[in-house]
Known about the structure:
By secondary structure, the protein is an alpha/beta fold. The chain contains 11 helices and 17 strands. It folds into 2 domains: about 5-55 and about 300-400, Aspartate Aminotransferase, domain 1, CATH 3.90.1150.10; about 70-300, 3-Layer(aba) Sandwich (Aspartate Aminotransferase, domain 2). A hairpin with a 5-residue loop joins strand 8 and strand 9. It starts with about 25 loop residues before the first strand and ends with a helix.
Amino acid sequence: xxxxxxxxxxxxALMPITRRPPLIMERGAGxxxxxxxxRSYLDLIQGWAVNCLGHAPAAIRDAIADQAGRLLNASPxxxxxxxxxxxxxxxxxxxxxxxxxxxxxxxxxxxxxKLARKWGSVHREGAFRIVTLQxxxxxxxxxxxxxxxxxxxxxxxxxxxxxxxKVPANDLPAIRIELERGDVVAVMLEPIxxxxxxxxxxxxxxxxxxxxxxxxxxxxxxxxxxxxVGRTGLFTAAEHASVRPDIMTLGKGLGGGxxxxxxxxxxxxxxxxxxxxxxxxxxxxLVCAAANAVxxxxxxxxxxxxxxxxxxxxxxxxxxxxxxxxLGEVRGQGLLLAVxxxxxxxxxxxxxxRGQGLLINAPRPHVLRLMPALxxxxxxxxxxxxxxxxxxxxxxxxxxx
Length: 401
Ligand SMILES: *Cc1c(COP(=O)(O)O)cnc(C)c1O
């Protein structure tokens, strides 16, 4: 008998790339997700910060329905109005000039690495080395895995792509030493390291990287795939530090639930020649229409101020829980937050929380991460905190008893 027969879900035809609970999710509305048994879940994962407007938002539904009835795909060889509109709005929102659309964050970062290498071949006598941070996460293609600083990934699918050097997070002197070697074309980093457990890079460090790369004639690449599109309370996390990188990547929240990502660059750096970069689905009108709907909502007056307010409320609640239950640090910005769980096993907390109708995530064994819809209400925040409190009380009692 296969283990699948014990489950109410038959997944034998799927590659077992992750452990999934035996549930089938059927529909969603705002901050709520519902399974096929009618159970409801208050969702503070939202597809890993993807559904920035929550589940099934009317704005995206209408934009997709309208575009689907008009034009699904013309091919990247033609202009369409959704990709033209989105590119100019996105470039302006990022304070940069040129956009290349991709289908996933990894593909956008792969493009950023290619663009930096191209720029190095044209402007830096072939320099190609890129400095990245330990514990960083940039995606799951071979190049982006090689760029990532996740433990063990240098051995997985060996040989890794050469040309990446990892330094500790928030260690500006280490970056300076690498840049002084003269062969570094770019420094690539996340403003907040999401998968590492929501580790913020200090504003002074981001500004320091900007100054050092400028002096060394190297590029600064910011991976804002998790932090961008309003997640931290400003359109990009770079704005908190008043930093303008040469290259920025966006993904996750950009499509509000549909797969679209973007490589955004300053005009001076944008040096792909025709034929050097592309992809069948890139800039597809359907996904660009969805992303345009996301931008209309996120850039509307008052939206980001509300994200900041909601972030404050959630953060204060987490700090209260941390004090009451002697947990650890609360970190993050806006609605990308994490709390250290101290002695409590975060993975066990996630599983118990799901049973209690609360979806949260554990990026590390003792860290809980929360990345709710940017549209979450105060009542939903309070309910999530109450459910989390109950889960922690039960776990702590179990640990004592
Ligand atoms: C999720 C993520 C990626 C990878 O995006 P995919 O769409 O999964 O390829 C890259 N960088 C960061 C910071 C991310 O959070």
